[in-house]
Write a structure and sequence with these properties.
By secondary structure, the protein is an all-alpha fold. The longest helix has 26 residues.
């Protein structure tokens, strides 16, 4: 019991000394070496972001003004598959998946996209790679590491790109080289 009392008194004494040192340091601002340095010039609040910087959160609005949020992107529920830009790119989902249960007990995607059901629902079956474990051995069912579809596949929306994208797929790069030659 005496040890706990000594420890509590010691901690209290340290806190008092730290508080006194803090207050004493703040009281003598004129003697601080940085006290005479003028503040750095700052850009006006109404100025837009400089150059090509992305201001995704405020979208160029001043910090003291409330702005309307952008409209939510709508899901393109057209069942038209988009082309892929590079080999092994996960395909996007061409339909809405609102309300789909995807957890450790159930995967709504597999109702249509499992190899056994794909013909019935006219849905593309999941790739054979989804049936492989990390040692490239084939499994009878979907690999547990490929079970949560939304880790790689995203729903197609009408969202506008946030930044410019100059990506060219390999086919267009090769065709440009052939034209140049």
């Amino acid at each position: 019991m005496r040890n706990k009392t000594f420890i509590a008194v010691g901690i209290l004494a340290l806190l008092v000394v730290a508080a006194i040192a803090f207050v004493a340091g703040r009281g003598s601002a004129g003697s601080h070496p940085m006290a005479s340095v003028p503040p750095a010039p700052q850009a006006p609040v109404d100025a837009p972001p400089a150059g090509n910087q992305i201001d995704a959160l405020r979208r160029g609005a001043p910090i003291d003004r409330e702005i309307d949020p952008p409209a939510m992107a709508r899901v393109e529920n057209t069942d038209i598959r988009r082309n892929r830009a590079y080999p092994m790119q996960p395909p996007t989902i061409p339909h809405t998946i609102d309300g789909y249960q995807i957890d450790k007990n159930s995967n709504r995607c597999m109702l249509c996209h499992a190899r056994a059901n794909a013909d019935k629902f006219q849905a593309p079956p999941v790739s054979v790679t989804h049936y492989m474990d990390r040692d490239d051995q084939f499994l009878a069912t979907i690999s547990p590491r490929r079970y949560f579809c939304n880790q790689c596949h995203v729903v197609q929306t009408d969202a506008k790109p946030l930044v410019a994208n100059g990506f060219k797929d390999i086919d267009s790069v090769l065709s440009e080289q052939q034209k140049a030659n």
